[in-house]
Amino acid sequence: MKSSNTMQRQFKMTDRQKKLLDAMAVLGLGTQPQSLIDGVLMDGAGAAIELVDPYTEEVLLAYPDADAALATLACAAAQNAQTAWAKGISAAKRGQVMQDVARAVLAYVEPLATIEAIVAGKPIRDCRVEVTKVAEMFAYYAGWADKLHGEVIPVPSGHLNYTLREPLGVVFQITPWNAPIFTAGWQIAPAIATGNGIVIKPSELTPITTVALVKIAEAAGLPIGLVNVLCGLGPTCGQAAIAHPIVRKVVFVGSPETGRRVAMAAAAALKPAVLELGGKSANIVFDDANLEHACLGAQAAIFSGAGQSCVAGSRLLIHEAVHEKLLDMLARGMNKIRLGDPLDEATEVGPISNARQYAHITGMVSQAKDAGAAILTRTGTQDRGYFVPPTILNNLPNSSNAAQQEIFGPVVTAIPFKDEAHAIALANDTAFGLAGAVWTADVGRAHRMADAVRAGTFWINSYKAIHVSSPFGGSLSSGFGRSSGTDALMEYTSAKSVWLDSAPQPRIAFGYVS
Ligand code: NAD
């Protein structure tokens, strides 16, 4: 097991490393990512993992993989804390603790946002919004903690039959690198509101803010050990936690390829899973739409967050009558987008979050070029960092790789359509079913499209509006199960059916008294 000092000495401290370490110190963290188990920051014993700054391409920090041993400790800690959390205090008290957590998170917006901006490469103004959303998630589910009850069912036998919604026990959550603290809050808040204990494994590329969030929550009154964070790799500590007998359910947010592996491992242990996976969402613009609004919507849909969003509007379906006009507007608009240092207040789009994703996106663009795409990109280049300029791929069919595979970058494939039926056919012609949108002035058409397009979330004259109170999820290669809103409360509980016989004689059809 390497100590943090040994690993840090390998690197010369840069300004950005210093900013990162300062923010980590404010949050009570050490000088490298460490797992948080039973309230204790712990080093793993596995292979070294490097965090690389996507803006400078320099190594920021390195740390050892948590490995399977820490997964076992994390599961045991979560189980110990969960019983008292679920049964030892009132549901109202659980809600009060969660309200305290929500307030505490708001006191640390700046260091959390700074870490996220440096490590994930996301513009700091976006990071601040995501941190405040996390506080909102805790506050929202705090309100549900004492409002979750069962029902009385009028069974024909005359028994009193009622249901209880029970926590599952310990759940294991796995999250990706594109919105680390947001995704952590999104899954932790409903799980603890319903009385569960948690082991969570953030992406090995962006683990720090999840650890910080749990430390903040513990300082605000969340029982120590109720939520445990594993900093490490999927195939090691991730798989160990999925297989651990204490874990009752797996909630995975990430790519379809990994989701398949996670679901198979969960199934092998007869555990249910929720999969929140990728998308190839259709953003559909009709010729009667307000084109200025549609243009803004199309930019937000694919260029915000450098397109690293599961709901990105990565297929822009445009009515043939306005296809060229809208592309022209988009091309001119994207030249005004401010790319740059994620720590710069003016930056609207930062670099791609990591080298692997950068290679994937640039590979997909060059493949699209070979396939005959006409490519429009934002002019101007960055002299360093994993930057991909906002890019439009034109003249490719919906069957092309660029239109069928998740690029997960600021790259949109523009496809013309003839009429409503054609737009619906194109929109549904993918393996995914996550999100979609329509831009039109025709209210009836808007509702017809909302009905016909296969998507867990659909926007009318809007894009990317989401809220913790509204269900979120997909179908097919976009996964299964739902997060957010009351749907998440159902995912994190199970129903128990209780039967009480009030008749003078038991209503039992078979049996003898000896
Ligand atoms: P990824 O699938 O590579 O990794 C996600 C997580 O899985 C990480 O924590 C990773 O360490 C872990 N993992 C990797 N291999 C594993 C294994 N064998 N066993 C267990 N865990 C393993 O995804 P990513 O590249 O981090 O994120 C991008 C993907 O996430 C995109 O496809 C995006 O659409 C998707 N995503 C979906 C949503 C949603 O809500 N639907 C939200 C955000 C991102």
What small molecules are bound in this structure? nicotinamide-adenine-dinucleotide
Low-pLDDT residue intervals, each spanning 5 or more residues: 1-9
Q: Overall 3D geometry?
A: globular
What is the tally of helical segments?
17
Computed structural class: alpha/beta
Gyration radius, rounded: 24 Å
Beta fraction: 15-25%
CA-CA gap between termini? 65 Å
Spatial sequence of strands, sheet with the most strands:
14-15-16-13-12-17-18
Helix content: 40-55%
| Major sheet characteristics | 7 strands, mixed
Attribute tags:
single chain; 514 residues; alpha/beta; seven-stranded mixed sheet; six-stranded mixed sheet; 20 strands; 40% helix; disordered N terminus; binds nicotinamide-adenine-dinucleotide
Notes on the structure:
With 514 residues, the protein is α/β, with parallel strands linked by helices. Helix content is 40%, strand content 18%. It has 17 helices and 20 strands. The strands form five sheets. It has a seven-stranded mixed beta sheet, sandwiched between helices. Strand 17, helix 16 and strand 18 (457-460) form a beta-alpha-beta unit. Helix 2 (15-26) runs antiparallel to helix 5 (109-120), helix 5 (109-120) packs across helix 6 (124-144) and helix 11 (291-302) crosses helix 12 (323-334). The longest helix has 22 residues, at 67-88. The protein starts with a helix and ends in a 14-residue tail after the last strand. Bound molecules: nicotinamide-adenine-dinucleotide.
